[in-house]
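Hi there, hope your week has been kind to you so far. Do you reckon you could talk me through the fold, stretch by stretch? I've dropped the whole record in just underneath, so have a look:
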Amino acid sequence: MPYRTFWEPKGIYWQHYGMVTAEEIFEANNTFYSDRRSDNAHYQIIDCLNVEHIELDETAMLKMAAFDKAHSETTHQLKLAFIGVAQPLLSVFDDYIRHSQKLDSPWKMKTFETLQAARNWLG
C-alpha cells in the first residue's frame, strides 16, 4: 500500500509514493467514503511528489470519475488538490479533472507543485 493517510480537521491528506496502481487509488477512496468524517470533509489533498510510476488506464480513470461523481451528491463542497511536478502524473491529473467536468462534478479541482500552494488554495 504505497500511500499514507492523514485525517485533518477539515479533510484528508494522502501522501502517495513509489509505484501506484488504480486498485490502490480505489482502496484509498473507499476508505475515505466509508469513514463518517468524509461527510463533513471540505478537501482532499493528493500528494504525488514521491510517486515514481502510476498505472491508471483510461477505463479506470472513467470509473474513478464516475464513482466520485456519485459520491458528490453527499459531499458537494469538496475541493481536490493534486500535487505533482512530473509527467505522466500531470497528465493523469488533467485527465481526471477533464472526465469529472464532463460528468458535471460540483467539486473544485486544481493541480499544484507544492503542498504549501495547495494549502493556500484550500484556505
In short: The beta strands are 3-8, 11-21, 43-55, 79-83, 108-112. The chain has four helices and five strands. The longest strand covers residues 43-55. The radius of gyration is 13 Å.
